[in-house]
């Protein structure tokens, strides 16, 4: 029976074929070499949204739920990247997005949000097409940069959400300490 389950699991894994592409930014993160302003800072988050054939304008971005609204339809982020010191120093970042080969070819919006500009966010759109599980994954960083997201002039999406803080989760150390204390009490009895 174990062999049958293992072969079934391998068969399912082989049947689900995945494809991927690279997304990110090549030159819009900092102004260290250009002397220009309006670039993103450390802590800025880039969000990737898969939106099917949608091409309309984003009407709002919910920063707490990581969702955008286009024409009354809400889409959740499928990937994200927070700009850290390394990204800022290098001036770029690259992430690989992977999805099933049957679903990866569609339109994508990239939204960036910086808490320093808490009332609005920037966006850009690109179309992934012709991607297969056996082909070379394309690189859409240039397409994202071409839209100009990250510049002050393009920070135009109204931002909603927020307010209440998140509930902190116990750390593994605290859980280990609590478990050890419970075990000691049990043994004491």
Provide a short characterization of the protein structure.
By secondary structure, the protein is α+β, with helices and mostly antiparallel strands. It is built from four helices and nine strands; from the N terminus they run H-E-E-E-E-E-H-E-E-E-H-E-H.
What can you tell me about this protein's structure?
This protein has one domain (17-188). Helices cover 23% and strands 32% of the residues. It has four helices and nine strands, in the order H-E-E-E-E-E-H-E-E-E-H-E-H. It has helices spanning 2-15, 85-90, 141-146, 172-188, and strands at 18-25, 45-50, 60-62, 67-70, 73-82, 93-100, 107-113, 120-127, 155-160. The strands form two sheets. A seven-stranded mixed β-barrel has the order 2-5-4-3-9-8-7. A two-stranded antiparallel ribbon has the order 1-6.
Report the sheet with the most strands, covering strand number, pairing sense and barrel closure. Answer: 7 strands, mixed, barrel
| Element-by-element helix/strand order | HEEEEEHEEEHEH
Helix percentage range: 10-25%
Strand order of the largest sheet: 2-5-4-3-9-8-7
Overall geometry = globular
Please indicate the percent range of residues in DSSP E strands (runs of 2 or more): 25-35%
How many β strands by DSSP?
9
Distance linking N and C termini: 43 Å
Topology:
Layout (H helix, E strand, L loop, with lengths): L1 H14 L2 E8 L19 E6 L9 E3 L4 E4 L2 E10 L2 H6 L2 E8 L6 E7 L6 E8 L13 H6 L8 E6 L11 H17 L1
Parallel strand pairs: 3-9
Antiparallel strand pairs: 1-6, 2-5, 2-7, 3-4, 4-5, 7-8, 8-9
């Amino acid at each position: 029976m174990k062999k049958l389950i293992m072969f079934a699991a391998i068969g399912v894994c082989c049947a689900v074929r995945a494809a991927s592409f690279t997304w990110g930014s090549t030159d819009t993160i900092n102004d260290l070499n250009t002397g220009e302003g309006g670039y993103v800072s450390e802590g800025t988050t880039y969000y990737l949204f898969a939106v099917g054939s949608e091409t309309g304008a984003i009407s709002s971005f919910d920063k707490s739920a990581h969702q955008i609204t286009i024409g009354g339809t809400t889409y959740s982020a499928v990937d994200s990247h927070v700009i850290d010191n390394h990204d800022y120093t290098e001036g770029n970042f690259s992430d690989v997005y992977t999805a099933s080969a049957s679903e990866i070819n569609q339109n994508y919006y990239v939204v960036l949000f910086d808490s320093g500009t808490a009332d609005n966010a920037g966006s850009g759109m690109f179309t992934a097409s012709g991607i297969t599980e056996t082909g070379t994954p394309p690189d859409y960083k240039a397409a994202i940069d071409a839209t100009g997201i990250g510049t002050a002039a393009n920070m135009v999406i109204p931002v909603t959400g927020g307010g209440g803080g998140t509930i902190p989760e116990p750390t593994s150390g605290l859980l280990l300490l609590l478990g050890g204390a419970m075990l000691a009490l049990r043994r004491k009895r």
